[in-house]
């Protein structure tokens, strides 16, 4: 191992992952020419020969049991870089390379696997900025956003999830006590909730954000669908953060769900989501890693460690109810999936290694660039753009999807930000449900009342930034919205849409196509229409898409009641009721969903009723805890703890 540290980084995941010249746009940088650092020459050649002899001797001793091999601690790369840069090391060593960084565990991926897995690199400009900070020994802020894979489902222990493993790699290779490394995964959600609450989940000065939604967003949607627009809005929000973070797309691949065109399993081009997200990666210059690209050859050939004919968790089923074959305890290390969707411990490690390979490649490039003034960097030998042109190209471009919001508008008022949303009340008070807890999230603050007849009014802007301002009620030059309850036909349509979406969610499908989410023209088309008998009538006015409101409230097994929710001014909506009762022996936040028309000052009243809930309880308590407004589909109420998870991942940012 000591000799290994003196070798160049060639052949490691870091370097080989970037050896494809087409990925960089440089024909000179094929895998044969790729080297992390300058070749050792002169007297060092003799030294290399001596090292070879010592390696042979060491192998003999190990084989005979004369000595025992022990794992050396990972040497921080930035320490060696600093010594070389500052002149603390001898000149010969400064011209050579620092010890190649290693993973803090035995790797599962080969260099070729990592190279296949990095499906898009682009300029890597923002990733280079992260690498520069790591090499300088500075702390970084890194976040992972995603669904159940990012949350860690499929692992046997919390620390085995890919975000934890990836963060372990950063701490080991680039240790710093002030790193901020946070996992913001929420199981069972689509990207919509993250698009609405991105600023509450990621600090403004973030350095690196990993985004994983390939298996969570619906695979069968056109690129112009609202859910795809929502994903683009999420990317735009992240790219516009003041810290200019490197945004990396991580594509998971569900072999057991990849069916179509006569294939029951393992269809390579499923899900279509990955193709759509890759187009966005090309447009926004986002590095991307893909489980499908890296592992499909291993999976289809049944390579040990990546087998897919069994899963490692028992009592798992396909969507049609057919039981999945489970691996025996002694053979689980041969398989990749824990169930039909999620990777097991080994699988999560593979995801972490793909991300680590991407970072190591950026560190490799950054080292050579800084050591040699750019002469060995990716720009060497090519035309140079002016600083002004480079600045223009580095700016966030206009939306790729036509009609998408240039600057997405949404509202995510969670925790402290929710208090000012109530602009008038009678009987409701802002208080903690558990005042003795040590933090704000645990204390469960909210607007609470226990008396029927008490009410609280929330006011918010429900307009869509993608719609011209003069077309939205409440804007300058636009007619005001009708009074609440005036448009009975629209209310009926809203109620029907809500029922259809709820049915889709119960079936495990996120409602996203424009025929159900209110994005289409409710009149059925433009131009004049002809009534029965041939009489010409004026066309119906085009109805703007509704905004979706997600009102977070408390549910518990005792003392809870029911509240009426209705629009009282500005916007219109169907009257609905939120129920705080259930049988579960738990007190959690829950989401009440309804739609409102667009208005600058949409005002909604929540009134405590005297009626009993679905589970009759002694008490009528209603506690409101958060408000979100979005113009893209949000899949969030498929699990009872979604609102609780959202509250945890939007806690006060560090």
Automatic annotation (TrEMBL):
Residues 487-502 have a biased composition (Acidic residues). It holds the Pfam family Lipase_GDSL_2. Residues 145-350 form the SGNH hydrolase-type esterase domain. InterPro entries: SGNH_hydro, SGNH_hydro_sf. Residues 10-20, 465-486, 510-522 have a biased composition (Low complexity). CDD domains: SGNH_hydrolase. The chain crosses the membrane at residues 44-67. Keywords: Membrane, Transmembrane, Transmembrane helix. Residues 1-37, 460-539 are annotated as: Disordered. The keyword Transmembrane helix applies. The keyword Transferase does not apply. PANTHER family: EXPRESSED PROTEIN, SGNH HYDROLASE-TYPE ESTERASE DOMAIN-CONTAINING PROTEIN. This is SGNH hydrolase-type esterase domain-containing protein. It comes from Chlorella sorokiniana (Freshwater green alga).
């Amino acid at each position: 191992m000591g000799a290994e540290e003196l070798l160049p980084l060639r052949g490691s995941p870091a370097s080989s992952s970037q050896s494809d010249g087409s990925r960089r746009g440089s024909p000179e940088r094929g895998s044969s020419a790729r080297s992390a650092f300058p070749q050792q020459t002169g007297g060092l050649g003799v030294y290399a020969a001596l090292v070879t002899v010592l390696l042979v001797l060491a192998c003999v001793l190990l084989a005979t049991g004369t000595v025992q091999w022990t794992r050396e601690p990972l040497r921080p790369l930035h320490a060696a870089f600093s010594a070389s840069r500052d002149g603390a090391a001898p000149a010969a060593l400064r011209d050579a390379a620092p010890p190649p960084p290693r993973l803090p565990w035995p790797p599962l991926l080969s260099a070729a696997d990592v190279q296949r897995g990095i499906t898009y690199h682009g300029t890597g400009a923002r990733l280079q900025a992260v690498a520069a900070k790591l090499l300088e020994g500075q702390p970084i802020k890194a976040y992972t956003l995603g669904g159940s894979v990012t949350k860690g489902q499929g692992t046997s222990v919390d620390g085995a999830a890919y975000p934890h493993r990836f963060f372990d790699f950063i701490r080991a290779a680039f240790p710093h006590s002030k790193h901020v490394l946070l996992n913001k995964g929420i199981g069972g959600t689509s990207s919509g909730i993250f698009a609405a609450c991105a600023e509450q989940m990621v600090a403004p000065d973030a350095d690196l954000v990993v985004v994983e939604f390939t298996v969570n967003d619906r695979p069968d949607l056109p690129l112009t669908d609202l859910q795809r627009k929502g994903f683009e809005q999420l990317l735009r929000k992240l790219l516009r953060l003041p810290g200019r973070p490197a945004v990396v797309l991580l594509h998971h691949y569900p072999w057991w769900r990849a069916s179509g065109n006569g294939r029951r399993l393992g269809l390579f081009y499923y899900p279509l989501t990955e193709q759509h997200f890759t187009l966005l990666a090309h447009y926004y210059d986002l590095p991307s890693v893909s489980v499908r690209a890296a592992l499909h050859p291993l999976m289809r050939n049944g390579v040990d460690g990546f087998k897919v004919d069994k899963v490692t968790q028992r009592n798992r089923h396909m969507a049609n109810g057919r039981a999945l074959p489970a691996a025996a305890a002694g053979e689980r290390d041969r398989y990749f999936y824990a169930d039909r969707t999620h990777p097991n411990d080994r699988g999560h490690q593979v995801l972490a290694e793909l991300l680590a390979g991407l970072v190591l490649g950026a560190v490799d490039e950054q080292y050579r660039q800084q050591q040699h003034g750019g002469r060995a960097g990716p720009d060497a030998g090519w035309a140079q753009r002016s600083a002004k042109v480079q600045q223009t190209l580095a700016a966030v471009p206009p939306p790729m999807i036509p009609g998408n919001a240039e600057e997405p508008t949404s509202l995510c008022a969670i925790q402290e930000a929710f208090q000012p949303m109530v602009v008038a009340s009678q009987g409701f008070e802002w208080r903690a449900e558990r005042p003795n807890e040590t933090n704000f999230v645990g204390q469960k603050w909210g607007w609470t009342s226990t008396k029927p007849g008490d009410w609280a009014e929330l006011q918010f802007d429900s307009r869509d930034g993608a719609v011209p301002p003069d077309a939205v009620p409440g804007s300058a030059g636009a007619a005001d919205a009708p009074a609440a309850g005036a448009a009975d036909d629209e209310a009926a349509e809203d109620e029907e849409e809500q029922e259809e979406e709820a049915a889709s969610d119960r079936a495990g499908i996120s409602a996203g196509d424009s025929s159900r989410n209110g994005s289409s023209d409710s009149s059925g088309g433009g131009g004049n229409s002809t009534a029965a008998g041939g009489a010409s009538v004026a066309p119906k006015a085009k109805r703007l898409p509704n905004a979706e409101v997600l009102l977070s409230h408390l549910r518990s097994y005792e003392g809870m009641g029911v509240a009426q929710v209705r629009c009282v001014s500005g916007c219109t909506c169907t009257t609905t009721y939120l129920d705080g009762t259930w049988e579960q022996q738990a007190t959690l936040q829950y989401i009440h969903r309804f739609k409102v028309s667009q208005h600058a000052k949409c005002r909604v009243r929540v009134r405590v009723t005297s009626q009993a809930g679905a589970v009759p309880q002694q008490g009528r308590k209603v506690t409101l805890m958060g408000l979100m407004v979005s113009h893209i589909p949000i899949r969030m109420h498929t699990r009872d703890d979604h609102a609780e998870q959202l509250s945890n991942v939007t806690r006060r940012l560090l």
